[in-house]
Specification:
- By secondary structure, the chain is an alpha+beta fold.
- It is built from 4 helices and 4 strands.
- The chain has a domain of 97 residues.
- 51% of the residues lie in helices and 15% in strands.
- It has a 4-stranded antiparallel β-sheet, covered by helices on one side.
- Helix 1 runs antiparallel to helix 3.
Length: 164
């Protein structure tokens, strides 16, 4: 019985090594997003004022950031209002994140937003449904098997001593 667990533990670990390495690496980066500006640009709390600017002002403020490549509403994929700190976040289709003061329209911070990309890589969704469900789902099940088989392999000597 011990051979069964050891054999399958080794075989499965070989097949899941690369996708699991990608999942671990992206997971570490996702966990560090709150203090890692490479993953997600840091917010700057300028004021805790009311959100007063219009959508037209939001678009004009976004246009002032050349890297964001905003010419019209077609270039913007998401707007997030944060009333608690008086800021507005604009995400472009090029994944550029712009933080705007909700009272003045001033651009507070901007930077490339890698969170969506890292999440898609982490889940395997970046590569399409076939890879997502055909490789990453079986990999997750394989990791579960490795955990269980590792515990069984570790505990087998203890059970053998009790039986004798």
């Amino acid at each position: 019985m011990a051979r069964f667990w050891r054999k399958w533990h080794r075989v499965i670990s070989i097949f899941i090594a690369l996708p699991f390495l990608l999942t671990i690496t992206t997971g570490i980066l996702l966990i560090s997003r709150s203090f890692n500006p490479w993953v997600q640009p840091r917010d700057r709390i300028e004021s805790r004022s009311e959100l007063k600017i219009s959508f037209a002002q939001i678009l004009e403020s976004a246009k002032t950031v050349p890297e964001a490549q905003v010419q019209s509403w077609q270039d913007i994929s998401q707007i997030e209002a944060r009333p608690a700190n008086g800021s507005i976040h604009v995400r472009t289709k090029t994944q550029w994140d712009i933080q705007i003061d909700g009272a003045t329209g001033q651009v507070l911070t901007n930077g490339y937003h890698r969170l969506s990309l890292l999440t898609a890589l982490h889940e395997g969704a970046y590569f399409g449904k076939i890879v997502h469900f055909g490789i990453f789902l079986p990999m997750a099940l394989g990791v579960l098997f490795l955990l269980i088989s590792g515990v069984v392999i570790y505990l087998q000597p203890f059970f053998k001593k009790k039986i004798r």
